[in-house]
């Protein structure tokens, strides 16, 4: 026979009664000054142990006993193995330290490997046509504020388009794209891959380039974005990261939402840099297949950076592109 | 304000005098017994539970998060004592898991579709506005019924149709008045949520003085406006630095943003503290009234120090932040008992077993009250 001190509530009135809980011969007896009830022990349910919070003993019919004597309860009943393990893990500082290491490692594996892999797999199954509306609206939006019709001679445009076509054909699995020429004094020399495979090339970039190979190198990079579905992947990865970060910081007050927004931003720019690196690698590979020297890529990157308007300098962890030095090294330029 | 949920009745558990000074014993009328909740948890203990929860959640790709939530709530409720007795949380992990799976699907659909087809945001907004009364009532009911004290469950007996006029009509009114009706909406919202809560069959009553809510919002607006002007002047002073030191350019950009953030945090804390204090001051139950003494500066300090601690520890300070915020809120909540009433259970809830499996509930959302 074993017994422990507890408080009894009948479940109908919010009134506490001091009782003794006695377990003997398969019966649970609750005895106090105003209380005397008895149940078959197997019909009694006991709450799982969580740190030193009070333990609840739920009785048939809606009544309950509660006690702070956790060890006493553990002597009376054995918890299911899983519950015992969880409580034991939660009780030890050494395991908490190990858990921190495991969480950091797992978090990194998920962010660096699992998520990009899953996003790439899912993106493959979403048809490019799904991006058509977005691509159209992105181009229309840019035309409204940043882009004007191209001033290049039609023959020059046709020649560049033909060169890009033969370059793309060198890729084993060329993505569907549409090349658009625009002039943009505001943006300057640049090229973009918009959703649904729209490539925008500015007249300024054509003028800045000293050889057609340089233009092709930039377009090959943009083609890399299209081939690897970076628009769709960034969308999926961004949503997943927001969810993951909210899961970690979720129970802190909403005024602290910056605590969720800042790491989300940092992780999202990491994905952006990873995508740029992937597009760079694609470009270098494609140039190599077409017999174009990769130093053209480094040369045009250097010239674009030199003429770009000087904005405030951002540290790498907030930047959407990898450092130019790293990208030059990739092109085999020291 | 998820942390606030635990305090007493599930939604809005915070209380204080309007100015935020501690409630003196004299404030209690003759014959009133002063009862304060007491939080016995520690950041150290909660950290160990939190990190195990997080580890298992990552290992199971999120599935365990429902069980994690139950353990967390049971830890925080179990460590909260009011008049000597701890609270109890009955939430079922299976019910929570169902809700979370649905929420993740809706979230991804929203994130992807609104990006690909910007027009679809209107469909989501419309659905959200129409479903709001339903989701709000069901979520509050779930949270209330999963919370108990002295063996008695809380309840939220409002019907969805009671919530329709306020939550369907108000967004339209707020939009039509360009936001001028917003403080009125907040006052009515608090009043709706608090006055539909009950402990067993003992209901709470609340009537918010709308004029005072407007005063609070007006002062919060002035705080933001004033601090923004200071931030803009600061940016103007700093701009020559950018010319001289281009490398420090991002800093000159960051500092004014930081100042505006602090202004926002302070205004937010001010609103939270004053509106919560006002709400509890105007809340009554059977034989009991309430007082809340949250201070705007205290709360703002909590928010900002929590934020910094969380950022600089890469999230590891979250449990500490949760525990200290909760403790502060409890210290500033007071129950003034004038008549010792033995509260009785709602007959409707008597047949719910301790596991609460019958309350298959997918709308397990926390509303910031």
Helices and strands, with pairings:
The complex is a heterodimer of chains A (334) and B (369).
Chain A: E1 2-9, E2 17-24, E3 27-32, E4 36-40, E5 45-46, E6 55-58, E7 64-67, H1 70-76, H2 81-91, H3 93-124, H4 132-145, E8 148-149, H5 154-170, E9 178-183, E10 191-194, E11 198-202, H6 203-208, H7 212-227, H8 230-249, H9 258-289, H10 295-307, H11 324-330
Parallel strand pairs in A: 9-11
Antiparallel strand pairs in A: 1-2, 1-7, 2-3, 3-4, 5-6, 6-7, 8-9, 10-11
Helix pairs in contact in A: 3-8, 5-7, 7-9, 7-10, 8-9, 10-11
Chain B: E1 33-35, E2 38-39, H1 43-59, H2 65-78, E3 80-82, E4 85-89, H3 93-116, H4 120-145, E5 147-149, E6 152-155, H5 160-176, H6 182-195, E7 198-199, E8 202-203, E9 205-206, H7 210-244, H8 249-281, E10 283-285, E11 288-292, H9 296-312, H10 318-331, E12 333-337
Antiparallel strand pairs in B: 1-12, 2-3, 3-4, 4-5, 5-6, 6-7, 7-8, 9-10, 10-11, 11-12
């Amino acid at each position: 026979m074993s017994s422990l001190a507890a408080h009894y509530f009948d479940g109908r009135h919010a009134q506490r009664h001091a009782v003794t809980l006695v377990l003997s011969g398969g019966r649970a007896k609750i005895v106090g000054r105003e209380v005397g009830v008895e149940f078959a022990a197997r019909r009694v349910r006991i709450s799982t142990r969580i740190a030193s919070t009070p333990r609840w003993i739920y009785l048939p019919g809606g009544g309950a006993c509660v006690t702070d004597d956790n060890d006493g309860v553990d002597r009376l009943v054995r918890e299911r193995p899983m519950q015992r393990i969880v409580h034991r893990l939660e009780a030890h500082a050494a395991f908490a330290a190990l858990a921190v290491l495991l969480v950091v490692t797992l978090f990194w594996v998920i962010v660096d490997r699992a998520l990009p892999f899953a996003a790439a797999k899912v993106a493959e199954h979403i048809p490019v046509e799904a991006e058509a509306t977005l691509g159209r609206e992105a181009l229309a939006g840019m035309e409204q504020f940043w882009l004007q019709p191209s001033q290049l001679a039609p023959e020059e445009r046709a020649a560049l388009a033909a060169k890009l076509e033969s370059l793309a054909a060198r890729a084993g699995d060329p993505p569907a794209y549409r090349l658009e020429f625009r002039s943009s004094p505001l943006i300057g020399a640049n090229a973009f891959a918009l959703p649904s495979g729209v490539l925008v090339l500015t007249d300024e970039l054509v003028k800045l380039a000293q050889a057609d190979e340089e233009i092709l190198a930039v377009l090959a990079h943009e083609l890399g974005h299209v081939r690897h579905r970076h628009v769709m992947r960034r969308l999926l990865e961004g949503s997943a990261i927001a969810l993951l970060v909210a899961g970690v910081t979720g129970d802190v007050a909403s005024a602290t939402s910056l605590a969720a927004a800042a790491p989300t931003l940092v992780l999202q720019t990491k994905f952006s840099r990873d995508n740029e690196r992937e597009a760079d690698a694609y470009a270098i590979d494609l140039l190599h297949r077409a017999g174009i020297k990769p130093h053209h890529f480094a040369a045009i990157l250097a010239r674009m950076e030199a003429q770009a308007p000087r904005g405030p300098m951002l540290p790498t962890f907030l930047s959407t592109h990898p450092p130019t030095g790293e990208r030059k090294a990739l092109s085999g330029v020291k | 304000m998820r942390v606030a949920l635990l305090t007493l009745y599930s939604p809005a558990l915070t209380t204080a005098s309007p100015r935020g000074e501690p409630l003196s014993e004299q404030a209690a009328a003759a014959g009133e017994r002063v009862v304060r909740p007491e939080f016995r948890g520690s950041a150290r203990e909660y950290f160990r539970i939190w990190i195990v929860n997080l580890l298992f959640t990552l290992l199971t790709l999120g599935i365990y998060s429902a069980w994690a939530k139950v353990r967390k709530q049971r830890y925080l409720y179990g460590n909260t004592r009011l008049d000597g007795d701890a609270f109890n949380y009955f939430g079922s992990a299976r019910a929570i898991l169902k809700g979370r799976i649905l929420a993740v699907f809706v979230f991804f659909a929203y994130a992807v579709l609104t990006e690909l087809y910007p027009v679809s945001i209107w469909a989501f907004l419309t659905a959200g506005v129409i479903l709001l009364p339903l989701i709000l009532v069901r979520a509050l009911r779930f949270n209330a019924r999963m919370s108990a004290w002295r063996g008695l469950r809380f309840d939220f007996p409002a019907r969805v149709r009671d919530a329709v006029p306020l939550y369907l009509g108000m967004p339209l009114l707020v939009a039509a008045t360009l936001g001028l009706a917003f403080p009125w909406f907040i006052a009515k919202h608090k009043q709706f949520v608090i006055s539909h809560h009950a402990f067993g069959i003992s209901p709470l009553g609340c009537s918010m003085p709308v004029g005072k809510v407007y005063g609070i919002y007006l002062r919060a607006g002035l705080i933001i406006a004033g601090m923004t002007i200071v931030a803009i002047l600061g940016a103007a002073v700093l701009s020559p630095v950018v010319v001289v030191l281009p490398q420090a350019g991002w800093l000159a950009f960051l500092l004014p943003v930081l100042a505006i953030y602090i202004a926002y945090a302070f205004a937010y804390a001010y609103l939270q503290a004053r509106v919560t204090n006002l709400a509890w001051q105007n809340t009554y139950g059977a034989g009991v009234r309430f007082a809340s003494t949250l201070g705007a500066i205290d709360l703002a300090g909590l928010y900002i120090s929590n934020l910094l601690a969380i950022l600089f520890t890469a999230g590891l300070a979250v449990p500490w932040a949760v525990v200290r915020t909760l403790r502060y809120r409890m210290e500033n909540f007071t129950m003034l008992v004038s008549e010792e009433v033995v509260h009785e259970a709602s007959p409707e809830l008597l047949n719910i077993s301790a596991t609460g499996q019958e309350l298959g509930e997918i709308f397990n959302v926390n509303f910031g009250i």
